[in-house]
Structures are given as structure tokens and as C-alpha cells.
Specification:
Elements: H1 2-15, E1 34-36, E2 51-52, H2 57-88, E3 107-114, E4 120-127, E5 152-158, E6 163-169
């Protein structure tokens, strides 16, 4: 039921746009694909001097719009970098940089907080497989940065300023 409500909200949001809108194609998160974790100061190192917050369905849609825009811009930069690399290295051609971001099939962990300015910020952890050793629905899944490449990435979004920042993509083996 919640996923249909979310789809309805996305449709309503897109219909209400009067300026250029970013279309959130195929956006529907099943409850099995994401979790919203509560913040705990003694547990998480991600934020400092913050308070716990919640996320509404409307905010999840807003996050998705900002996120999709960032992914598009990031992947466009990767295409340009790849073209430059291949032009400069004709004997070492690559098909991908390894840092392109995918979104389908990824699990997500949202950690919302209110910062010292009273703004809502969200840390989002993305990963493409189910962790075997930890319950990702209740605990932050840390890949250990062990050559996971673009299968593991995380970022922060400030909903008040609409800024997406601190994108971190795990390293990958050559």
C-alpha cells in the first residue's frame, strides 16, 4: 500500500511542477529495498551535533529527485573523463571508469537528522548486494571499503539547501 501511495505522490509532485522538472523514472521503492535508521550519537560517526529526525513520503520523493539529478551529472562527468582517458591512451582503452553510478537493484539505508542550524540532512548508504553478516534493516552496513567499487556508495543530502554532497564511492580493483 505504501509503495502505491509513494507512486501517487511522485505523480502529483511531477504534475505540480511549473518550471523544469526532473522526471523520476520508474521510482518505486519497495519496503524490502530500503530502511530508515534512527540516529544514535553513541552509535554513528556520520554526523556530529545533530538530533534524530524522521522522513515523510514527500521527503523521500524530494530526496529521489535530488539524487537522480546528481547521478545524471556524475555519470556525464564520468563519460567525459573516459573519453579523455581513451583519447590520451590509445593502447589502454577502457569501456568504463568503474565509478559510474547505478541505481536499480540497490538497497538503501537512510539516516535522517536535524543539524545545528535546524536543517534536515540525510545520509544515504547504497549497496548492490544483501549483507550476509549484518541486519541492514537495523544496522548500518559498512562494506569495509574492500574493493567494492560502484557497488557501494554513500552521500549526504541537505533538504533545506537542496545540496547533495560527500559522495563517496568505494575503490575497485583494476
Amino acid at each position: 500500500m505504501k509503495k502505491y501511495f509513494l507512486l501517487f505522490c511522485v505523480s502529483l509532485f511531477l504534475l505540480s511542477c511549473k518550471k523544469k522538472c526532473i522526471v523520476v523514472e520508474d521510482f518505486m521503492l519497495a519496503e524490502s529495498e530500503y530502511t530508515i535508521l534512527p540516529f544514535s550519537e553513541n552509535k554513528y560517526y556520520i554526523f556530529k551535533d545533530v538530533k534524530e529526525a524522521t522522513l515523510s513520503d514527500k521527503e523521500l520523493i524530494e530526496i529521489e529527485v535530488l539524487f537522480q539529478k546528481m547521478v545524471t551529472e556524475h555519470n556525464e562527468r564520468q563519460v567525459k573523463w573516459l573519453a579523455k582517458h581513451n583519447k590520451e591512451n590509445p593502447k589502454n582503452q577502457w569501456e568504463k571508469t568503474g565509478y559510474e553510478l547505478e541505481t536499480k537493484g540497490f538497497k538503501r539505508q537512510y539516516l535522517p537528522v536535524i543539524n545545528e542550524k535546524g536543517e534536515k540532512e540525510v545520509w544515504i548508504n547504497f549497496f548492490c548486494n544483501d549483507p550476509k553478516d549484518v541486519s541492514w534493516k537495523t544496522e548500518i552496513y559498512d562494506s569495509g571499503m574492500a574493493d567494492g567499487g560502484n557497488c557501494f556508495y554513500r552521500l549526504k543530502i541537505n533538504l533545506a539547501t537542496k545540496q547533495v554532497y560527500h559522495l563517496f564511492i568505494d575503490s575497485h580493483s583494476p
